[in-house]
Amino acid sequence: MNDYMVRAFAAEGMIRAFAVTSRELVEEARSIHNTSPVVTAALGRLLTAGVIMGSMMKDERDLITLKIDGDGPMGGLLVSADCRGNVKGYPYEPAVVIPANAKGKLDVAGAVGRGTLTVISDLGLKEPYVGQVELISGEIAEDLTYYYANSEQIPSSVGLGVLMNRENTVNCAGGFLIQLMPGCPEELTERLEDRLRGVDSVTHFLREGKTPEDMLSVILEDMELQITEKLPCRYSCSCSRERVEKALLTVGEKELQSMIDEGKAVELSCHFCKKKYSFSIEELHTMLLESRH
């Protein structure tokens, strides 16, 4: 099944919902960053959330960045997404190996530790909108649910999951987001909460072969579910030599001169896709001259 996300409404617009299957893009991220299973699970969850949250933005140039900083051995994660289903990300430490949690599952919370979740929405304005909350569990889905309740004041339920194969490849990955719109009747809220309490994990849904549409059908059964959009999603990095050169120019004249004085070509690697860009001494010298004009 190719990766895709669906957007939907239910209960005559009182509920909006998103569900996504993301195995291929999470496997792509695992392959690029050579992540250990627990890091793949953490990064995969945040990439899946990025796809959903990115799809809520209106303009094609808008970007959303999800950043987790924790005191666990992984250090943190950073994910960036747009409204077209493109997402990318990287872990601070890709090769973390820790024991399973009490349930015998990958201990994402232990790898992340205590810290903060930051959501940065760049909408093309002078300053981006930044929301930040403390991590309440490190499991990511719970932390995003808490973020929506506190920073956005939107009652939400987030489910995210990544299941690994024994050979450290991704078996399945995906997630859902259910949100209550303003004015939602209390009776409907309680009904949905009861339904969510009885819902199996995202990976259980996916292992049974359920599609994103199926997931929402189970969660929102008898609530007049209407699928309104289907969006392909993928791991995609927009880095280029020109962008890396601009980034290199930001280090300043003194640092550029120091690189030139070392007499060796400079090689830079993109955090998101690991593509390498090399700049010769002559190119660095030209950049230095241009920066002075």
Written overview of the protein:
A hairpin with a 6-residue loop joins strand 12 and strand 13. The model has no long low-confidence stretch (mean pLDDT 92). The protein has ten helices and 13 strands. It has helices at residues 23-33, 37-54, 108-112, 141-150, 186-197, 202-207, 212-219, 241-249, 253-262, 281-291, and strands at 4-10, 15-21, 63-70, 76-81, 86-91, 115-122, 129-134, 156-164, 170-180, 226-232, 234-235, 266-269, 276-279. The termini are far apart. The longest helix has 18 residues, at 37-54. With 293 residues, it is an alpha+beta fold.
- Element order: H for helix, E for strand: EEHHEEEHEEHEEHHHEEHHEEH
The major β-sheet equals:
6 strands, mixed
Q: How many extended strands?
A: 13
N-C termini distance: 53 Å
Low-confidence stretches: none
Q: What structural class do you assign from the helix and strand content?
A: alpha+beta
Pfam families: HSP33
Main location: cytoplasm
Keywords: Chaperone, Cytoplasm, Disulfide bond, Redox-active center, Zinc
Disulfide bonds: 237-239, 270-273
Layout: helices, strands, pairs:
Layout: E1 4-10, E2 15-21, H1 23-33, H2 37-54, E3 63-70, E4 76-81, E5 86-91, H3 108-112, E6 115-122, E7 129-134, H4 141-150, E8 156-164, E9 170-180, H5 186-197, H6 202-207, H7 212-219, E10 226-232, E11 234-235, H8 241-249, H9 253-262, E12 266-269, E13 276-279, H10 281-291
Parallel strand pairs: 5-11
Antiparallel strand pairs: 1-2, 1-10, 2-9, 3-4, 3-6, 4-5, 6-7, 8-9, 12-13
Helix pairs in contact: 1-2, 9-10
